[in-house]
Amino acid sequence: MPRVARVAPGGLIYHVLNRGVGRMDLFKRPADFASFLQAIADTLRVVPMRICGYCLMSNHWHLVLWPRQDKELSRFMQRLTITHARRWIEHRDRVGYGSVYQGRYRSFPVQSDAHFTMLMRYVERNPRRAGMVRRAEAWRWSSLGQTADDGPVKGLKSPPAIIPLCPWPVPRRRDWIAYVNRSQRAAEEGAVRHSLRHSRPLGSAGWVSRMEKALSLTPLRPRGRPKGKTAKPKG
To answer: Which long-range contacts does 198-203 make (Cβ < 8 Å, 24+ apart)?
Structure first.
């Protein structure tokens, strides 16, 4: 089990994601993916942000962000999503056709221990899990797949922006690429999906409880019938 919970130095780490409205594809061509990376690069020039990792899929994206200060996350994400949505709409001449995203981005704190490693593996393994590539590092549109010397990408006039990644709060395994490509345990995938489904922090039980109190989140009810209560007889 992970070690005793602690808050990451300099602030909490967040798993951030959003989807296209109605699960609409946000990215279809290399230029679509490259445009989002450029929006990240442009946003970083105005609002600094530590980026631990990311992965862009066809109709959604994941970011793992480590803000240094309060409100830095909201400033960064607001500028990024507005910039990307505006460019997406203008490029397709769809002004007045409605929203690009299904709503405001969602963000979930993650404990800076084994849970962080679990999350990063889940995020960077997405294309491999979806069967889009045979090896996760072959997906150019993720922190695992980006490299500074990739050169031109077919369909693009210039190489995509390289997103600067920060050092992790925990040591990265030396066999990280091989580890990402191996099947992830159902319990680990389930923990990340539970966090997404219920909008919960990702961490040990004690750490999650403390985060729920700090963030004024109502604790989830345990599964099954409440203790001490029995079903009333029918009729």
So the answer is: 199/106, 199/108, 200/108, 201/108, 201/109, 201/110, 201/111, 202/15, 202/108, 202/109, 202/110, 202/111, 202/115, 202/118, 202/119, 203/2, 203/5, 203/109, 203/110, 203/111, 203/113, 203/115
